[in-house]
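Page 47, continued from p. 46.
Same chain as before, 552 aa.
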Amino acid sequence: MNFLEAIFKRLEDWRDRPVLGEARAEEVAHATGGELLALIQAGREFLRKAGAEKGDRVALLAPNGIRWVAMDLAIMAEGAIAVPLYPRQAAAELGGILSDSGSKIVACADPALAGTIAGRAGSARIALFDEIFAGDAGDVQPPRPLAPADPVTIIYTSGTSGVPKGVPLTVANVDHMLPCTRARLDQLVEAPREEPEQVFHYLPCCFAGSWILLLTVLGRNAVLAFSTDLQRLSDEMQTVEPEYMLNVPILLERMRDGIEKQIAGRGAIAARLFGAGRDAYFRRLASKPQSLDGLRLALANLTVFPAIRKRLGPQLKALICGSAPLAVETQLFFAMLGIAVLQVYGLTETTAICTLDDPRHVVAGRVGPAIPGIEMKLGPGSEILVRGPNIFPGYWNRAEETAQVLRDGWFHTGDQGEVNERGNWRIVGRVKNLIILSSGHNVPPEPIEDLLVRSVPGAQQAMLVGNDRGYLAAIVTGAVAREQAQAAIDQINGGLPHYERIRAFHIHPEPFTVESGLVTANGKLRRAAILEALGEAIESLYAASPPPATGN
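Result:
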């Protein structure tokens, strides 16, 4: 039984029980297994009438929701290949993906989204959800037979260096991955049990990690509720009361910042209790405890920490985090509150996952060991190489790019990493992002950029520059005061070797956006595009003689 057949069986078993939900205001609108099956069958009937055949590409342009899931499963159940699109992506990029994939049909949530691709869909038929899911579809049919090598989706990479590339994932890829993710969740929630797990989800399902979580949860004793308003995430979390959820580092950083600001606004007593408990916790981790730290931490655990946990969700066991490295301090901050942060590392090309934190043995700052059945090693330049049944078969219609990353049986990730003696991995940065100064020093920019964003008040993004230059400079976006930025940079520089110190910076008031083409769909910097767009400002940072390196 492949993963799709297993999901259909579970939906049959749960015909009268909720499997999915959409958080709306103060309640969750649920769909049962039977209701989801009916929507899937309606989608399949539409595809048949529209002439979709096995192997045809069908694009899916919609925000997260019950009907998104139904259409995705309908496409795969008919033997077609789903091409999920990011609704916020630039219209030109969406058109490029539709052309590259050769999509025959585009399933759109509403007329507004259909309008974004008007004139860019080529010969593809654009169909709205209201049309697709109209009427009674009849009896539910099992999925069409699929071979292990059959692709079920083509997920387009974010394209930090240019045009996004299509990554086909096969039945065999997903069949290997889902048992691995289920096993980790079993450790987290102590399955099996009678009550279903409650899961909250806000990241777009068109991203590989989100999609794998969705498919994993659809095969579990669980109910997944989608966010419907990103401006009300906190309220939606309180309504759903999840046990775990998938996150990106920037949200956890904002959650931490929001918690500390709320505590500061609750009055002097709460702020003192929280601050004393937090400082005691971090001193203990640094093996530098003070005489009363045990009492300080005990008081915080009796008073302010439980209130924070209740606000985040009384059932919350873990925050799963991926897509980029997370600050160690933030991971430890949530651990202090009694909420584990489990890190995941992977790429679309590795079916979203290479490593998973073991909930019983979390090492802060690392992303866990390799998942069962795959191998990981370090290549030249500390590049992470991976092989196993989770590796994609090759980029869609791009033989040359495929040959560059699939060599001698190994997938070359482009990520720099390190691994300790227990097999726990840490991600350092991207090989292609490495800055080589004219002095010959190599600087991975990501760790310093993360420090800048966390340290400079008001900073939204940060990017280091300096390739072939004599020193590093930084671009910082957001409503940032120059004096505060300088003070933060002075502080950061004090902990860095001389060649990693930032000697000049430029403040760009407007954050980089997907719409401007300066970040990818999942928020990663498009460095080449930024260098071009801010060329004059960057040149001005190097026009004068090198400023002195600030710091100690």
